[in-house]
Design goal:
This is Contact-dependent growth inhibition system immunity protein. By secondary structure, this protein is mostly helical. It has 6 helices and no strands.
């Protein structure tokens, strides 16, 4: 699988900035982390992140979990009871609420 860094700039900024290696020190739940991001972001940026999550899943399809692990090693959705798709669905739900 060919992972292209920089293909999803807003998503990569979000994941690297909020779900970094010490993300659990920032908040205890996905919801807390996402709410923190949302409170400091404008609506256009939030919209772009959501679009890039959709594009990521469409691009990698059945390989989304593996691609997610390669790009963002500091968080494994499986340890939180999620796949890459369900993790992004949860994030989008919070961002759009």
């Amino acid at each position: 699988m060919n992972i292209v860094r920089g293909q999803y700039p807003e998503l990569e900024q979000f994941m690297g900035g909020w779900f970094h290696q010490d993300w659990v020190d920032t908040g205890e739940t996905i919801a807390e982390i996402v709410q923190d991001y949302k409170s400091g972001s404008n609506a256009e940026t939030v919209h772009k992140v959501c679009l890039e999550m959709n594009a990521f899943l469409a691009n990698y399809g059945a390989n989304s979990d593996a691609a997610f692990r390669q790009l963002w090693k500091s968080i494994d959705p499986a340890t939180l009871g999620h796949t890459a798709a369900s993790f992004f669905d949860e994030v989008k739900r919070i961002l759009n609420s």
